[in-house]
Write a structure and sequence with these properties.
- A 3-stranded parallel β-sheet has the order 2-1-3, with helices on both faces.
- It is globular and about 50 Å long.
- The protein is built from 2 helices and 3 strands.
- It has a domain of 55 residues.
- The protein is an alpha/beta fold and 95 residues long.
- The longest helix has 17 residues.
């Protein structure tokens, strides 16, 4: 698994590096993960899902729950299953 630094680091010319999978999206399992705290991010997820699907990806959205107690156990289980299902993912505000 490769975790990218989510902070934008602008080059001297004002641009920033982007990430490329170096493969077509067709047939890839792309994960989109978020929690229910950022309600406005639901709109972003819907847009990403629509665009990724149009490019041939299978999109798997995961809404995570609490991090402690019984729901925390369920969240960890869901994350474990989801992470084995996807080839790549956008997590949180990594857009």
């Amino acid at each position: 698994m490769e975790i990218l630094d989510p902070r934008v680091r602008f080059d001297e010319d004002g641009t920033s590096a982007t990430f490329d999978l170096d493969t077509p999206l067709t047939g890839l399992n792309v994960g989109l993960r978020l929690d229910r705290s950022w309600r406005s991010y639901f709109v972003v997820i819907d847009e990403w899902k629509q665009r990724l699907t149009a490019d041939g990806a299978q999109v798997h959205v995961l809404y995570t729950g609490e991090r402690v107690g019984d729901e925390g156990e369920r969240t960890r289980s869901d994350l474990d299953e989801w992470s084995r299902l996807v080839d790549c993912a956008v997590v949180g505000l990594g857009n």
